[in-house]
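Researcher: Predict the fold of Helix-turn-helix domain-containing protein.
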Amino acid sequence: MRTEDLQFARGAYESYAEFYRTSSYSAFPQQHRTIQGSRRSSMILVEQGRHELADPAVEEIVISTPLSAPACSYDWNMGTGWAGGKSRTGDLILVPPNVESRWRVGGPRKLVILAVPVDHVKSLLGHECPDDLATALEPLSGSTAPNTMAISALLQQLWSLGDQEEPLSRILADSMVLALVCQVLLLARAGTPPPASGAFSPRDWRQVCDYIESHLQEEIALPDLAQTAGWSVRHFARMFRQSTGQTPHNFIVRRRIERAKGLLRKPDLQLADIALTCGFADQSHFTTSFRKATGLTPLRWRRELI
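Model: Structure tokens for Helix-turn-helix domain-containing protein follow.
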């Protein structure tokens, strides 16, 4: 799907499953099932080939895992620039609700995909549901680190449950969807783990991420970040880049952009206030950084969102 096609398609699809059936993805062999819980979710089993496509934003959390992906590399872009990795069996691939995504997949892979409507998530979680699911799940956007086999197993079990409508099956479907949503929210809350080849332990990485998130509206000094991990500044900067593929500065700017996206969804907030809340020097600095990351000014991004 070309970028102009994506612009035309925005808001045109009621569900990710509908988009999958009618877009360029229809060229790939696929099966569809409806999960009959208290509210319906959709699942797709697809054998993808090499492709470069774009997905529109939908009011659903899209959770998937590769069942097989022999030597398949891929890239994704969800508005903050391109990132990439290897598609490995059991990994978690997630698109938050109301987020457009672009994909470049270098080879064949078989995926099982679950799309859960936001209304269903809210009904399952009740008062525990985050006000802004897109922002809450943003740390998992694209591909996360491996070792999410529990999520992969749940997705496969849910697919096996299929379209059964008898009462016990509906209760089981709801419990499995709830378990999946809770798993990804907890994983997102813990922060994105660095790649397995990185130098950070999970505990050190969580401490660094927690420090960044709690100080986003302030100036974050590299020596303070290095002290959080207990390393020298030079060693920290080198290991941070090795683990994340980014400099600490670029990583912090990306986190500020993502927090700003969540605030831009609230039309009563002024751009100048959002800029200061997210740690930008002023509105001009915010606009420049946001446009560099997304290709849009904050005002245009908000208008297109609404």
